[in-house]
Amino acid sequence: MKTNLLKVSAAVCALAITISACNSGSKTTTTTTDSTITDSTTSSSLKPAGPAPEWGKTIKPEMQAVIEKLASYGDKPIESLSAVDARKNHTPTDAVMDLVKENNIKMPEAMVDTMGKDIDVAGGKIHLRVYTPKSGNGPFPLIVYYHGGGFVIANLDVYNASAQGLAEQVGAVVVSVAYRLAPENKFPTAHNDAFAAYEWAVKNASTLKADPAKIAVVGESAGGNLAANVSIMARDKNIMLPVHEVLVYPIAQSKMDTESYKMYANAKPLNKAMMAWFTEKYLTSMTEAQNPKISLVNANLKGLPPTTIITAEIDPLNSDGVMLANKLSAAGVKVNSRNYEGVTHEFFGMAILVPEAKQAQAYAAEQLKAAFKK
């Protein structure tokens, strides 16, 4: 990334500490119909420079300001680049951090310590970042977190705010997983890495000051797909199931003709062309797109843990989340879901700027804490 990664890591780590406990008075649903969050309360005076974009007329001011900042860098469209070059593009995290700096927004002190750990997996090694609460002696609940990026781009720094926000809001140890990326590592490498990291976390929970009986999985976008697959693999391999899974705008199927793909084909920071590019980079052939690991709606979902699904309105993957919630519910899985209006893909980690991100992270934390108490 063009932003120095060490600086990003140090600064982004505080992004989510400002999360409020506000849930806007909205209702949690145990059906497959998303509750829609429309709270327009803002915690800053952040204003966009121009009118709402054609692809997102309902976009909230803070969200639009982030998207405008991202566009200001002038990067080439990801779908026009090689994977190596795409990884050099600015990220939504860069845009957030620059807006924080430009608007003199104070960064809170971190409430967690972090350490890195390399583990062996089939065919190589992967890196983990472990977040541990500074207060309390444990054992803490344990969350294994999977970042987004279409299986091709992004890293632990880009999604640091989400992982740290969960650790701080839940009071849990979070293990964030740097699974290997495509096209250097084709399907199902990321899926296998994700499960290997979960197995490692279960086996090493006590050394992490964590309780192996209280473990959950969380993922965003491609990471949401991975988190769900980890639960499926744990069930099939007869090892301990997560007590809960939180899937944030997960990739859940491969057809790009859903309602949200049609409505938000040209959205930012994720659009239909990028999704096609991600798919081509990760899969060896397009026939693999129907594999249940990619198209979760085709998977056997029975016996999975209670699931929280979070979606963004202005997102090609919005329908994926709804479809997966329907399939999970039909399989007898308890599903709670919320849709956040006026925000785009990648909003979840923007709690320091975007009120809806504060609400979504607080909601995810609430769901996880309730699961850990059972």
UniProtKB/TrEMBL annotation:
Residue ranges of every copy of the Alpha/beta hydrolase fold-3 domain listed in the record: 143-348
Alphabetical GO biological process terms: triglyceride catabolic process
Region annotation Disordered: where it falls in the sequence: 25-55
Molecular functions (GO terms): sterol ester esterase activity; triacylglycerol lipase activity
Pfam families in alphabetical order: Abhydrolase_3 (PF07859)
Listed Low complexity bias regions: 28-45
Signal peptide extent: 1-23
Name of the protein in its database record: Lipase
Highest taxon above the source species: Bacteria
Keywords from the named record: Signal
Record's keyword annotation contains Magnesium: no
InterPro entries noted in UniProt: AB_hydrolase_3 (IPR013094), AB_hydrolase_fold (IPR029058)
GO cellular component: cytosol
Record bears the keyword Signal: yes
